[in-house]
Amino acid sequence: MTSSGTYVQNPSYGQFVAYAYGKCGVRRTELLAEHFEDARMAMNVVLMDFSNKGVNLWKVEKVTTSLVQGQATYSVDPSIVVILDAYISVPNGINGGTTDRLILPVSRSEYSSYPNKSQQGIVTTFWNDRLLSPTVTLYLVPDGTQPTMSYYAVQQIQDAAFTSGQTADLPALFFKAFSDALAAELSTSWAPERYPMLSAIAKESYMTAADQNEEISSVYLSPLVSGYWR
Questions:
Q1: Which run of H or of E encompasses 154?
Q2: Which of 113, 153, 112 is nearest to 134 (CA)?
Q3: What are the two backbone dihedrals, phi and then psi, of residue 24, each rounded to the nearest 5 degrees?
Q4: Are residues 44 and 81 in the same domain?
Q5: Which domain holds residue 27?
Q6: Partner residues linked to 102 by β-bridges
Q7: With contact defined as beta carbons under 8 Å apart, do 198 and 184 qualify?
């Protein structure tokens, strides 16, 4: 075997840009300041598009928030795209331990239908209000017996710039998808005749990467048939 034995390839944003412009037919010796300014905007547009397209597993993080008795609404970091699974921790009386209880998401319309939004008790649901300054509102309102709420959330991909050899906030499996999407985005300004081809390549590359960006788990479907033997 004469393989490298390493897994450290991590191109800088500058390298991605030069490669993407090459796909557009713009050679490195032709790159000017305006090319790089357009590229900076294009990189961030592409990364935001990646954040929009689905659950990026490498950006899922766990957030734990302390709950206050009688307080229903809590701030959410604006960099969070969407809240996935959430649970509260309830003391179980065993050596200071807690038991985690899943709470379920509801829509604005469903939350609006609750008649007594200030009722305290064990939290069962949450509403994530996705404003510019997002919040999460709980129902029932914490009654002081639940010290914390935890949730898994998708955070947006970090911004792109050229300073200090900055590298992309992406796993290696998404490098091709990113470079192809960047080339397609840049081609709209610098090589519009190539856009149909580059756009098709970018879509295929993204789907290939997205197919690997999934959790592997089993799903079991069981019909409810007990009513037939009453």
A1: strand 148-155
A2: 153
A3: -85, -5
A4: no
A5: 13-55+157-212
A6: 87
A7: yes
